[in-house]
Amino acid sequence: MRTLILADIHSNIEALDAVLMATSGLRIDRAILLGDLVGYNAAPVQVLQRLRTLAPVLSVRGNHDKACAGLEDMALFNPLARMAIEWTWEQLSRAALTSLVELPKGPLTLSPSVEICHGAPFDEDFYVQDALDARRAIESASTPVCLNGHTHVPAVFRTHGLSVRDDSPLEDGAYVVAWPTNGHLLVNVGSVGQPRDGDPRAAFGVLDEGAGTVELRRVEYDVAAAQQRIFEAGLPLALANRLEVGL
């Protein structure tokens, strides 16, 4: 079973389409969405339509999805994020908004070995930013492998004896993470639509349960086209500018 892992797409259709094109030659059996389908960028309608063409799909909600659906306090968001959420809400149909309302809260169990969440198993909005955070997330997980998103930064944390080790990727190419024979693994594949690790390429992952691996991948996309959508939508220029530097 090979699973496409998509996190933090954030209304970026150019990035999503580049990922789908890059994986079109792979044998993908299903897709999982780790939350934040919308927000920040300017193609929420197109992204939600494209995601409906993927099947089967298992999804969890993100904080921007909740805010757009009226399930999260907008005061928790910075001004740029609030502006994008308000704009997104105006673009979406009632049916699309309902689909966001109906996104389930994580964590969800994918298999006996894998569960998925947006932030962490114990708190869907928690940011796992270091090994200490990762320990809290791993200790709350119900499976040996947990896949999360939310930070927009690729990260790999694994238990090493009594400690948690940061094994995050440093190189530019694909990074294959083998499942632990014992212990636990927490993997963030990074963001499709708004990377924040200094690499503007769209990030995604491929889970192969048969091989016992998670592969972290990157693909270039038409950043200029995504920026142009933001300009034309009248959204803050800062949201467009950050795409070309991956921050």
Write the layout of secondary structure elements.
Layout: E1 2-6, H1 13-22, E2 30-33, H2 44-51, E3 57-59, H3 63-68, H4 79-91, H5 94-101, E4 108-109, E5 114-116, H6 131-140, E6 145-148, E7 155-160, E8 163-166, E9 175-178, E10 185-188, E11 202-208, E12 213-219, H7 223-233, H8 237-241
- Percent in helix: 25-40%
CATH superfamily: Metallo-dependent phosphatases
Largest sheet, order of strands side by side? 3-2-1-11-12-9
User: Helix- and strand-based class?
Assistant: alpha/beta
Number of strands: 12
Strand content range: 15-25%
Could you name the key traits of this structure?
single chain; 247 residues; alpha/beta; Purple Acid Phosphatase, chain A, domain 2; 6-stranded mixed beta sheet
What would you note in describing this structure?
The chain has 247 residues and is of the alpha/beta class. The chain has one domain: Purple Acid Phosphatase, chain A, domain 2 (4-Layer Sandwich), CATH 3.60.21.10. The strands form 2 sheets. The chain has a 6-stranded mixed β-sheet. It has a 6-stranded mixed β-sheet with strand order 4-5-6-10-7-8, with helices on one face. The longest helix is centred in the middle third of the chain and has 13 residues. The two termini are 33 Å apart. The mean pLDDT is 94.
Kindly summarize this structure in a few lines:
The chain is α/β, with parallel strands linked by helices and 247 residues long. It has helices at 13-22, 44-51, 63-68, 79-91, 94-101, 131-140, 223-233, 237-241; strands at residues 2-6, 30-33, 57-59, 108-109, 114-116, 145-148, 155-160, 163-166, 175-178, 185-188, 202-208, 213-219.
